[in-house]
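Chapter review: from sequence to fold.
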Amino acid sequence: MFARGNIAINAAGTVGDIKGGIGTNINGGIGLYALSNIDIYGTVGDVTGGVGTNSGGGKGIDATTINIHSGGRVGNITGGAGMNDDGGRGIDATTIEISGDVGDVIGGDSTNGNGGHGIYASHIIDISGVAGNITGGAGFKTDVADGMIANSSIVISGVVGNITGNKIGIATSLLNISGVTGQINGELVGIFAESCTISGETVQISSDYVGIAAIAFTLKDNSVVYTNSLADLSALSVAYGNNAALILLNIETIDIGEYPLDPEDDSVGILFIGDSGTVYGNAALTHNLTVTAAQTLTIASSTSLTVPSGVTLSNNGAIVNEGTITNNGTIYTASDGITGDGEIVGNQPQPFPPEGGGDNNGDSDNNSGDNNDGSDINNGDNNNGSGYTPPPTTNPSGSDDETSGGQVPDYNEDGSINLPGGNTVVVPEGQDPVHNEDGSTTLPGGGTITLGGSAESGQPQVTANTTVDVPPGTNIGDDGTITFPSDSGGTITIPGHADDTSESEQPQETRHTTIDVPPGTTVTPDGAISFPEGSGGATITDGYGNTFNVPESAVITLDHDAPLGYTISVDNPFADVDDDDWYEDAILFAYAHGLMAGTGEDEFNPAATTTRGMIVTVLFRMVSQQWSGDSGQFSDVEDGMWYSDAVAWAASIGLAGGYGDGTFGPDDAITRQDLAVILSRFADLVGLTLQGTRSYTGFTDGEDIANYAADAIELFYSAGIISGYPDGSVNPQGTATRAEFAAMMMRFLESMV
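The token string follows.
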């Protein structure tokens, strides 16, 4: 299945299995392919890339943005096998969001190349729904496939099965796991990231060499991580949360000094290095724990371990207690399994019950049955890979009892909870908001905040049902200001709000705009979004898959009445653009959206001409294309020039062709009529139907308009994108200045709602 623009499968839609064709001397066909967005609200069967019999395998699903929405379901997704080149990737896109259900995702195998990655994104992977096992394909070259890779960030807040790569399990710059995963395994490295934050319940990571390789590794409160090693990186920094458990398996000795865990008086939690475990501070178990037959857990005289009600500690090995064990739950232990001069307060330990005693051999929900993949993550006795099982879900009692965690929040009929500022939030089960003494509210499990849409006096009105997906640790001030934590960003989604009378065939609900914001972002009640210094700013993706990079110095304001649903305020950096210039707003719009930059340190040069190379490069960047085809079809376009890939891409899809003599003319000034033609073709490419808002009566110099440009000129005038000059002319064969191009791009994008 292929579309030059978007593919949208609505909630009532059902599609059977999709399979790409076999490629003989070309790559196998892509199973599901769109040049722009793929939005799935309904049901799709298995999706498979085609086999390349003398070439590479086809990808399973490929698009600029892939969004499998809540309620959407897709079967297994498999990249095609490559017989003489690389296997196809299971899923390939710039941004991938999975909030629905997906089966197994598998990269294609290769008999003479690299295996295909399971899931690959050049920007972001965000899984808040459910996905099966994610596996990279087998290859026969050194650089074989990873299970999941994203250049910017991977966020897993949902449920994912095992993630396996022949080289690396997960590779990204910023990794945040707050959900549930099966085992993460890579032959060389389990997790490779600049920054890795784990706030999930139990995460198992293994590799033949290094379990976790990260410059910054953060273990959040109450998290449990099993791994066979941490990389010995000179800049490695490990933040160790309260009541966290870091269990390093199969390591006989290790110098704690290599890893600045700071397991001192101010640390709280459990650290296992190989078979030796130590309790630091006044720790409390948050999940069931099994001490296996080969392990020893030591509680020093200055420390304590609490087993809360509903939690079980199973001791098959040895516990040396020189401090205090407070048991409000259950402790099972073998005979003489607990030694030392410390005390045990509360319930006394008891022998294992006959029907379930001994080692914990229960099957894990994420890795059922014994672990037969050859890894050592289970450390012998414990066959569910962790020794931890989630405690029973409990809600606060509603009383002021110190153990209750506060009062039960008031749930609305739709399951949401009211927040300060008139907003509501839906949180994961068992992760109710925490109300702080300063009047603010913390979301320990993150959630989805729906903005109220009401307008303060004199302020813009936020589009109703705008949502903010926030990570664990997000704070909402008593005035309703949302502050993202310093280690995790999120996504703001503005619903499509075009005129309901639009005749566009594009489903209204798919044309939402997303804003991916960095850690530390704030969102005020009036919809002002600000970014911290050094964050790099935000990425906006409109409903047609176009992406825009917003600088960190800008402020985005959510505004229902704005054509795009938002406005961007940015200081004017150009000395040659004045406040009273007709083109100031357009130039700042283009600058704030990352479309155009200056020509010098503080100059924009608005009167300079726009070239053909500039135009196609701007559009190429908007659709986030990665070009791997022939860029040498024009004699005047050399490889490696800033416009080379954009020119080749534009020519390949019919957006802009060359001259009859085999040249493209990348440095030639573009005429106003050619600019209208290219933008009109681009609208067709992304699936946009421009709506006429005024009648076209022609221009005084209409006879100068070329036949091939007449329809584009009429369409763009009717849609309000061009207006002509005061004397009634349009000057179609005149060159377009940089200011005029900025103005056309602003009006063009504002009609893509």
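Two observations follow directly from the output. The chain is about 10% helix and 30% strand. The CA atoms of residues 128 and 409 lie 23 Å apart.
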